[in-house]
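Changelog-linked ticket: heme C example.
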Amino acid sequence: MTGVLRVGGYAVGLIGLFTAFSYYGIPQLVPEPPPAEEQVSGAMMIEEFVAAGARIYARACVLCHSGLGDRAPKLDAIATVWRERVDDPRYRGNAKSLEEYLRESMIEPSAYVVKGFGKPGSGDTESPMPGANRGALALSPGEIDAVIAHLQSTAGAKVTVAPRPVPASGVERPAAEATVGEKAPDAVAALQKFQCDMCHHLPGLAVEEGARLPGPDLRKLRETAANRVAGMGARDFIVESILFPARVTAEGFEPGLMPEDYGDRMLAAELQMIVDYLAEGR
Ligand code: HEC
Ligand code: HEC
């Protein structure tokens, strides 16, 4: 670990701090829960309901289900694919319809783990997807229905869920803050919240000039990020570097030093702010 020696006691302290992090888990970016006004109500028309589901999906699911099929499976063919899932001997759930399969996939992601997408070392028995009805996602039953309606609609299947009446008092939503802390108000605050400045020179965050930090200087990232990995744009490269630091190691720097669990601890909105800021300076 020459990098550690290079930066002396400072980095030794950092290592102590970071040994608690899991270096093997798959980052699970914590999506921001949908805003309160996204609460679905029984008075909605079905089109509004599907549209609300699309907005919840964009906020809570697209980070992983980007449509590229790299972080999570594509869902556009789910209307037919679900039958293969439930017929697979590895299937451990009870779904008898597309609606049930979608609900089960959201609430019990490990009931079926799509081949190649399981947690590393689990032999595709454990899903890295967080349960949609709890934790940071904490969607209400009505919101889950809306997402199902959206997925059925985009997959070209019949929409079989309808808005359900919600109690006048509204829906209880466990606070995401419990696990991920309060949302940082802006990009610089987010960089500080996650202590990126302990290891990187960053735009807008003064560190003693010439101070040797364990990570690369990111003040010029706007110019360099687009050329770091062939075929990968600046924004994707930055996202990848934050969520999967082990995938690309900057030349001359120590691999394994940057925490690999930001995906578990960051709100989607915080990642977005950091990426906008580092890639485009806004
Ligand atoms: C942290 C990343 C992540 C997030 C966030 C996420 N998923 Fe997933 N999802 C996955 C992965 C990885 C899989 C494949 C493993 C598995 O089968 O559980 C998956 C599988 C699924 C499947 C089963 C796909 C199939 O082909 O059988 C559905 C349906 C699904 N997700 C829906 C959602 C919805 C809806 C949301 C938002 C509420 C969501 N996911 C949020 C990562 C994620
Ligand atoms: C404990 C030290 C440490 C912390 C904290 C840390 N990083 Fe890093 N980071 C590194 C090291 C070391 C590298 C170079 C090795 C590598 O690429 O994995 C790196 C690489 C990067 C790169 C890729 C740079 C390139 O050109 O390859 C980006 C982008 C980055 N970090 C962003 C961040 C952000 C944003 C945060 C806060 C959310 C953060 N880092 C927190 C140590 C750290």
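Closing comment: Example verified and attached. Confidence is low (pLDDT under 50) at residues 1-28, 168-178. Residues 28 and 264 are 5 Å apart (CA to CA).
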